[in-house]
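Limitations

Structures in this collection are predictions, not experimental determinations, and the ligand pose is part of the prediction. Treat each record accordingly. The example that follows, with DP6 as the small molecule, is included so readers can see exactly what is and is not provided: the inputs are given verbatim, and the output is the predicted complex.
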Amino acid sequence: MTLEQYLANTLPGVTDIKDVSRAFAPSNIALCKYWGKRQEEFNLPVNSSLSISLGNLGTETSLECSNTDILILNGEELDSSDPFSTRLFNYIDLFRPPSIKLKIETSNTIPTAAGLASSASGFAAVIKALSDLFSWDLSDQRLSEYARIGSGSACRSIYHGFVLWEKGEKHDGSDSFAHLINNSWTDLRLAILDVCSDKKAISSRDAMNRTASSSPYFTQWSDIAQSDLALLLNAIEEKDLHLLMKTAESNAMAMHASMMAAQPTILYFLAESVEMMHKVWACRSSGLSVYFTMDAGPNLKLLYHKDDEAEVLKQFPDAISVNPFVT
Ligand code: DP6
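Predicted complex:
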């Protein structure tokens, strides 16, 4: 089934269009990473993944019917040839009648200094806003499926809290969506260590495809992801923060190991990333329970118990702390 056929079968018709709609979606950080696709058009993953959403840090998007397409990102109008604009409107074209033109205002509540990618919250916010604009009132499951089509990790940004994205088995992705696992166990805190916010040399999309097609460790990666996911689910069930943070750190390192073995190699670590890792490990040796995770970039995200926040920020004064449970 093609993407167009799948959408034709599942999208409600457009009969009632509001003048304006607005939506917010949180950013999310994976504790068990999504890395590798079994199908590209629908962004269907090889492994299930688990994330924590970042509370009130994310993307706010408003849509307004207009005579022509306009995109304003963080207060500045983007040229229609801008790659972000092209990607976003290509996505929106899948869902809107061709006669509908939109003025989109989108802004990130993530501090720019945090150097966090915003595509996950961006696609999640825009599909929520489209559902509202066309009075579709889509279920969270359907919103998650549709957000995944924009960017895989976006399917997790529909929810606040610990979120599980089930990889599913079906060709049309109808069983590959995220759902909320828990948002009542609130001990975890994060802090973002921005090592470098320059544009990365290789996007996560290209890096995961290269890893899947050329890394001899890719099969091991998906086995590790499966066992890490079981550990993380158990950690959430048992409220075992140490197990959760430890598993998240080793899962991130396993993902990076799989990409280092790709041809040509992919290495997101900068010297300062490695320096910060050693600092985290030194803190742990001296009794502070702090761990990290890393995505497709050089920045570290520290993980720790809320009671250790003051000590963590003392050790890492440049870190930007995040309470993932404030909405
Ligand atoms: C390392 O969701 O950006 O952050 O589906 O191709 O858009 P596409 O990829 P994307 O990849 C995210 C990769 C990651 C891990 C994760 O968030 O699970």
